[in-house]
Task: structure prediction
Amino acid sequence: MKDSKIKQSWAEPYKIKMVELLKMTTKKQRLKAIKEAGNNTFLLHSEDVYIDLLTDSGTNAMSDVQWSALMLGDEAYAGSKSYYKLEAAIKKYYGYKYIIPTHQGRAAENILSKILIKKGDVIPGNMYFTTTRLHQELAGGIFTDIIIDEAHDPYSEHLFKGNVDIAKLDKVVKKYGAKKIPYISIATNVNMAGGQPISFANLKELRAYTSKLGIRIIHDMTRVAENAYFIQQREKGYGKKSIQSIVKEICSLTDGATMSAKKDALVNIGGFLATNEWDVFEEARNMVVVYEGLHTYGGLAGRDMEAIAIGIAESLDDNHQHARVGQVEYLGHKMMEFGIPIVKPIGGHGIFVDAKAFLPHLTQDQFPAQTLAAELYIDSGVRTMERGIVSAGRKANGENYYPKLELVRFTIPRRVYTQAHMDVIAESAAAVYERRKSIKGLKMVYEPKYLRFFQAKFETLK
Ligand SMILES: *Cc1c(COP(=O)(O)O)cnc(C)c1O
Result:
């Protein structure tokens, strides 16, 4: 496994031309800030954050080429030149036939769910994603998890924890019938499992299975380039293939996609819906006008579409992905050296710390991951986020989901931080780990109705 041979250099294939200055805070300032934020790192002011690992979404550094392309943005309301550049890039690199730009990934999910899902339909997926599942549910669908069991075990070293358990899928199909399944929702480099890839072999098997039944595969391709990197590094027969060609092969096994360009595609905003079916495209083109804007801009400025078109190409460069994942692995190895329990294998976009193992004296109702994220911020100004019981939310009947994984996510923005920053992050996690026994849990004092992790507030237990 490549992962353990980290001595190979992952140095960046770029140099720094401009810097963004950061405010340095004292512990006293941070204690005040986290209290005001209700112990929710989403509610901190970014000005009070030193190293921001809340998300890799929209936090990427654009290249000089992307920045200069902004000036070429064609801001025409209809038929913008920039739209045709984006369409050409998506066709060339991903191979989907029809595209609808959207302001970000969830807008594409909204449109797609409304078109394909009828009340009572079932949507099997390789683990849920927050916005994806919510749009499926709002459209009347029921999400069913068909990821392999290993994905729910933070210590399983399975190399492709994003794989689908075809037997689980078969059970769902037998129970509900193929007619009730408008599509299978397949994420590449599964975010909620810790940035874990699906193998090409598994995807092929899934394609063969679904083709027989006439069920679509819709690809959540937010992190497809990172997934392709892992296939290149780990799967037999792919070592000599380029990331660009692996990505195109992955897409060719699916019928359509939703994309948040804010991740792999190296921009700060944007997304799209892609499909190979004319009927779906036609309906989406009607619907995007209602929710986003005309089908040739879909809630984006012309300049945004320019930057995405270039970002897609840059994201598929082998050296870029090697440095990207290499930096994440560097941080993970450093944390393991300090004895910190992390999800393994190390994922593509961040390190996921097992908060249940880090704070074993807290019950899940005392929000161990939420607690740990707050403590890390207090220690060093490093901002992470909860991926556990708070993120999982409640079922339609009001009961809490109790996810097996109770994680703190250290998400690494692309091309933003240095190796010394990685050192500071690991050292801070180690400092909190040393005083872990003295850490008290939290109670929720404010809970919003939807996607509660964004705005919920907590108080420290006495
Ligand atoms: C971020 C993300 C989305 C949603 O995209 P937004 O651009 O944030 O709306 C969907 N799926 C996955 C896997 C994501 O990581």
Summary: The two ends are 45 Å apart (CA to CA). The chain has a mean pLDDT of 95. The chain has 16 helices and 14 strands.
